[in-house]
Amino acid sequence: MRQLGDASQEIIFYQSYDPYGNVLNTVTAGPESNYGFTGEWTDGNDLVHLRARYYTPKLGLLLTKDIWDGNALDPISFNSWKYGFANPIRYTDPSGWIPEDKALAAQTIRENLYQNFNVLVVQDWGFVHELKIENNEVYREALRANPQLSDCDWYEGAWSMLELRTVRDVVRDLASEMGSPDSFRKELGGIVLSQEDIRSVGQAKAHRIWFTNKSRSFGRWTVLHEFAHAWDANYGWRLSLGLEEFTGGHTDSLRGSGSPLSCQDNRDPGCNKTGYVYGGVPPKGADQNFTRKEDFAESVTAFLYPSEALAFINDPNHGLAGDPRFEWVDANGNVTSDFSLTPRGIFIGTLFNLAK
Ligand SMILES: [Zn+2]
Questions:
Q1: Contact call for residues 103 and 125 (beta carbons, < 8 A)
Q2: Where along the chain do its domains lie?
Q3: Which of 302, 334, 265 lies closest to 86 in space, CA to CA?
Q4: pLDDT tens-place string over residues 108-161
Q5: Any bridge partners for residue 69, and if so which?
Q6: For residue range 55-90, what is the model confidence (pLDDT) as tens digits?
């Protein structure tokens, strides 16, 4: 992970781009400092304490108690799922990336995201002389791409206006489902968002989301999927563990390497390389890299955007229609087109209610 290689550069990011003069104290160098937000940002111990106090009794009623105990934490791993089954809506954005005359609009979205939701978009557009002072990594990147850039030129960066608006819309939708911006801030715990040269469309961990800088746009499905990962990660990945147990799934590590002989199709439960034996029917099916974390992220996204999930599985081009592996089933075993009635929908709905 190149972008995590140098923690001190991340510190530069945070401090330079707080538009309000608040120092976003990222503590000292070292792996932990990526999470070392204080003040408005999360203090890991306080938040864990708060969550334990607030949620454990309630979730204990719904879920088995043991998922909150012991070694439930997964090692932090980056999502590298390639969206084999996702189908981001494609847009065209006539305004391009962020030209100088869009700077005010971009900044308005950025400040709204930060003030209301604690989502900090790392700015990579602006005058070259500003980038040089405030964000040396972006500056060098800009010069690499355009060696003829002078200090007075405007650099459009990797974000497009459309991408910024998509992020804003998704964050609003998610916060609305959680009841308020305040709930969103508590559940997500502060997010730093940047575009970088990564191999997948998006990646996420607690307090951090990356999107590829190679696209001009990405759909709301992609964006929400990554925010769902960050939500899960802020709880030490226990939300996805809860989903796995609630739906009767399990992860069989013995099947994690090599393909099991009995597998006919890697979309069948347990038949992918992760050995995830999922219970019930994931909203858009599974692929080689489907894990409980992906299951959770997809389930959150389908809960908010069920029509996109339905459109995908009903699209004849995907050949999924009529395949029982892709039909949503309610608690009584009946096929349904209402995702909220499926076990996954019920679980995610409960999480949203607890967040309120
Ligand atoms: Zn994912």
A1: yes
A2: 237-356
A3: 302
A4: 999 999 999 999 999 989 998 888 877 777 788 778 877 888 889 998 889 999
A5: none
A6: 222 222 222 222 222 222 332 222 222 222 222 333
Cα(138) to centroid(ligand 1), Å: 26
Query: Does 92 or 31 have the greater pLDDT score?
Result: 92
Which one, of 215, 223, 195, 191, lies nearest residue 205 by Cα?
191
Half-sphere CA count of 223, side-chain side, radius 13 A: 25
The three-state secondary structure class of 211 is: strand
- Residue type present at position 274: T
Q: What is the rounded average pLDDT of the residues 339-349?
A: 97
pLDDT at 313 over 50: yes
Q: Which residues neighbour ligand 1 (ion) by CB within 5 Å?
A: 79, 81, 294, 297
Rounded distance between C-alpha atoms, residue 50 and residue 185, angstroms: 13
Gap from CA of 223 to ligand 1 centroid (Å): 10
Q: Give the Å distance between the CA of 112 and the centre of ligand 1.
A: 26
Q: 243: which 2 tokens? A: 């989903």
pLDDT in tens, 177-235: 999 999 999 999 999 999 988 888 899 999 999 999 888 888 999 999 999 999 999 99
Look at residue 41 and tell me whether its pLDDT is greater than 60.
no
Distance CA 219, CA 91 (A): 8
SS3 270: coil
> What's the rounded Cα separation, in Å, for the pair 10 and 77?
19
Segments in 27-158 forming alpha helices (H): 44-62, 103-117, 128-134, 136-145
Q: CA 308, CA 89: separation in Å to the nearest integer?
A: 9
Cα–Cα distance for residue pair 295/292, rounded to 1 Å: 5
Distance between Cα 81 and ligand 1 center (Å): 5
pLDDT confidence of residue 49: 26
Selected residue with higher pLDDT from 131 and 282: 282
What is the DSSP code string of 271-334?
A: -STT-EE--S--BTB--TT--HHHHHHHHHHHHH-HHHHHHHHH-GGGT-TT-GGG--B-TTS-
Cα 36 from Cα 332, distance rounded (Å): 46
Distance of CA 297 from the midpoint of ligand 1 (Å): 6
